[in-house]
């Protein structure tokens, strides 16, 4: 029974990874690249001791003559400098949703690797369960 539970956990991870891949590939294919400016940096803290787990950046960019300010969901280990310019790709349907252009390819590869490893992980436990 334990093998089945681990296989199900793996399948859930595969599904979540495929959903994220779909979102990233949609933005890559249909997104619009613009130059955005870092306007604010905030610390992401976790745990009882409030240790810094990363940094979130509020980016400002123009979409059809309107200024948009949106916070990234990347959680970088090092903060970008306020005033720095970064190329981003935003979703034309939801301009507040964006990805950094330089991280897009890396993230897509990482999700594919996660899917591959998790397929092997789940297959191993499904095989053990059926045996």
Q: Care to give the gist of this entry?
A:
With 131 residues, the chain is of the alpha+beta class. The protein is 45% helix and 33% strand.
What does this structure look like?
There is one protein chain. This protein has 131 residues and is an alpha+beta fold. 45% of the residues lie in helices and 33% in strands. It has two helices and five strands; from the N terminus they run αβββββα. The protein has helices at 2-30, 101-130; strands spanning 32-46, 51-63, 66-71, 85-90, 98-100. Strands 3-2-1-4-5 form a five-stranded antiparallel beta sheet. A hairpin with a 2-residue loop joins β2 and β3. α1 (2-30) runs antiparallel to α2 (101-130). The longest helix has 30 residues, at 101-130. The radius of gyration is 19 Å and the shape is elongated. The protein starts with a helix and ends with a helix.
């Amino acid at each position: 029974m334990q093998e089945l539970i681990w296989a199900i956990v793996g399948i859930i991870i595969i599904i979540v990874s495929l959903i994220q891949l779909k979102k990233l590939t949609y933005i890559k294919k249909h997104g619009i690249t613009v130059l955005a400016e870092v306007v604010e940096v905030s610390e992401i803290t976790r745990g009882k001791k409030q240790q810094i787990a990363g940094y979130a950046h509020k980016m400002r960019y123009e979409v059809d003559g309107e200024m948009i300010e949106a916070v990234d969901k990347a959680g970088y280990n090092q903060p970008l400098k306020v005033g720095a310019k970064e190329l981003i790709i935003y979703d034309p349907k939801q301009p507040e949703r964006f990805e950094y252009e330089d991280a897009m390819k890396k993230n897509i590869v990482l999700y594919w690797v996660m899917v591959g490893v998790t397929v092997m992980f789940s297959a191993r436990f499904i095989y053990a369960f059926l045996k």
